[in-house]
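We treat protein structure as text, and this decision shapes the records that our systems exchange. Below, we set out a record of this kind in full and without editing:

***
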Amino acid sequence: MQIREYLPEDREKTAALWLTSTIKAHPFIAEEYWLRAYREVYHRWLPETKTLLAEVDGEIEGFLSFTAPGEIGALFVGPSCQGKGHGTALLDAAKERFVRLQLSVYAQNARAVAFYEKNGFVPQAERVEESTGERELVMVWHRP
């Protein structure tokens, strides 16, 4: 597996991975919500964020996007690639770049919460995400 920087020509595959992964990871949110959000991700979010890709044999299998320095806005691994170390590798690459990382995760996404806790993130706050009405945990990691 290789971790590399996102390039504009990666947009189609990365956006498709986002859509497939986010629908599977969030069954508690209507699929229509994610289908509506896809245009925003494709046209605005991916081109404007700093994104790292997990690539195997030329295929994008996961990605991590920063919405600001040290602020993780997304971390997704393709459903068939989960449990193979891609998410951890992406987090490790982020940890090399920053001494502090912060992210938000839906509280109902127990698998993701457990993954972040396993990787050293600690819940710092709780809030309600406006567009979905879902509870989110704000989690933080600090370099020791």
About this structure: Helices lie at 11-25, 31-48, 86-97, 110-118. DSSP finds four helices and seven strands in the chain.
